[in-house]
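Below is our example:

___
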Amino acid sequence: MRSNCSSMCASAWKLILSQVKNEHIQAFLQGHDWDFLIGSVHEINGELFEVDKKWSREQGETLWLRYFELLCAAVSSGYFSLVSHPVRMRVKPVISTTIVEAQGVTRDFHGGGGVVHALRGIDLRIEPGEFVALRGRSGSGKTTLLNILIGLDNPTQGRVIILGEDLARLSETERARLRRESIGMMFQNAHLFPSLTAQENVEVPLRLARLDPMQRTQKSRRALEMVGLALRAHHRGLELSGGEQQRVALARALVHEPRFIVADEPTGNLDSVTGRDIAQLLHTITHQSQIGLLVATHDATVVAVADRILHLHDGRIVEVATV
């Protein structure tokens, strides 16, 4: 939509800015361009507008023109405000209550020996604050499912919706943005940079997001405090135990405040006591932060603290248990 309507919206936005009288509101608006409105619903004089970047060119131009016409009228009459929300201009964020949903997902792989049906019609749904354990033998399709749910692979059939975004409608660049902003990942190996300190390892996603140094420091320290490693922030990866390395990996997965975390055997290389500590930490953070967590695991200590258990067998979910 931005490419279709950018010049039109920019012109309308300048018009709105010119009519805003409150200097505090004007200063706030000048720090944004028009697309900060994407992902919101606006009601102006009883007319609702959902600012959705999936509009077609024709829809987008028509709706944006009508939207800005009413918005300019609201500004002119003094009803426009970002501080309070008067009756004639209400702004509210669109919040997806479901973290991730899979509908009829299949995945086939074609090789010299024929077709391998890795996934056969997967339906699942994860809500905020829910810790879901995914069990199954090696080769049952767990990793394939995780990759599809975060947009690293495409299903042969079916749909995946993350935070209201249908992955099939997103480009590779948009999927990468979604992962960078809203998804955290953990693996069996911590994959730390051995020459970097714990804090520097946690900062890596923030560097990719181009946050300024002060913000990176604040966020990484807060994430390390969350996992109980604040005192080890300046120790290098090689100086940390296996459990500490996995805590750093968890802090790295949390530092950008994602809504959805996937973990593939995060306790697989840990002893039972350390594994239990990591599992309990995952449980606590999931509930406190209201994220959605999906963990593929063979570890009984992880399963014991999950809210729900999915059993994957030959590409199908054959049992769903609630703990």
Residues 57-76 form the longest helix (20 residues). The two ends are 44 Å apart (CA to CA). The first strand starts at residue 40 and ends at 44. The CA atoms of residues 4 and 57 lie 6 Å apart.
